[in-house]
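ok trying again, last paste got cut off:
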Amino acid sequence: MAGGRSGRRLLSTALLVALLAGCAGGGPKERALDTYTAEEIYKQGELELETGKKPEAALRYFQEVERLYPYTEYAKRALIMQAFTLHKAKEYEEARAASQRFLDFYPGDEDAPYALYLMALSYYDQIDDVGRDQGLTFQALVGMRDVIETYPDSEYARSAILKFELAFDQLAAKEMEIGRYYLKRRHYTAAINRFRSVVQDFQTTSHTAEALHRLVECYLALGLNDEAQTAAAILGYNYQSSPFYDDGFRLLKGKGLSPEAKGDSWLRQVYRQMIRGEWL
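nice, full thing came through this time. structure:
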């Protein structure tokens, strides 16, 4: 039996090598593809994807499987591989289109969670720096949330949760970047709006402590001491070990003030929520 399996493997390998040689030259030889089975063409695509330097070279084989053998199991597998190959080639829009086609044709298939995850990943993998258009980050958040909510028990849900949190942090980072820009130019009201957004809308990110400290700076610059003291009080309650708290405390001390919830601003409301355990 072992010898028979070995022989079949050698024959299969020989067929794949012959297929690659027959198609590499282009021109009339390309018609030889329709003389091979769906499995043989599909495996050639896998081989090309694994050994070739350009993922695009494998794409043709998966496309031909779907064209020559529609409505077969290999056509279905070839479609999800098209999406994967396009994503690997960084053809993100085309990858999303292939993934969506898979979901349209095979919504109940076991690979449907991966197709949805791949759509979200096509946005996420374009988030390369804070300065980039954050529309991609928002699309990545929506896509990862869809994976988490639609397939919570899938193997992709955990990865989607992690990437959702990272993308969420990215949006907060963008708000902080703009806020610092305004603060540096003493546009305090505009800066406050950005830092307030971080405190209210991105509370679970790594940027909240700095946002509170920057609010202390802005409010002191505007002479709004109650708001500055309240921001520092929130900062001290949640992030007393943070260097941002030390910086904020020194700013207040320089004005003869101390961290304390005062006044009736939006920050006072946040402080009350925090005391009731609703903060963060």
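cool. The two ends are 63 Å apart (CA to CA). The first helix runs from residue 2 to 24.
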